[in-house]
Amino acid sequence: TLDLRDNLIRDSGAVGLGLGLAANAAMTTLHLGNNQIRDAGAVGLGEGLKTNTTLTTLDLRDNLIRDSGAVGLGLGLAANAAMTTLHLGNNQIRDAGAVGLGEGLKTNTTLTTLDLRDN
Description:
Radius of gyration: 12 Å
Helix content: 40-55%
Shape: globular
Structural class: alpha/beta
Oligomer: single chain
Distance between the termini: 26 Å
Largest sheet: 5 strands, parallel
Strand content: 5-15%
Strand order of the largest sheet: 1-2-3-4-5
Number of strands: 5
């Protein structure tokens, strides 16, 4: 578990973490709530999810993620076979972002919890 809630990770930090996730084979939980992460950071994390095989929980609550970031996460979910829980509450995700996440869910077979409240 890596808990980085309430920092200033922002996009560049989230992209770096995405690169780390792509190669990591141990971490199961990553908390990134309240870090001012925007679309570019969410897309970077989505890239990491495509090849990560161990992360089961990703918490991105209370950030600034909009539709294109949610679409990027959806692309990651489409290829991911480990994640069970994704928290995206209190961001700025609208219709297009929800559709992008839904596209990812079409092929994802592991996600059981998706929290989108307060968007």
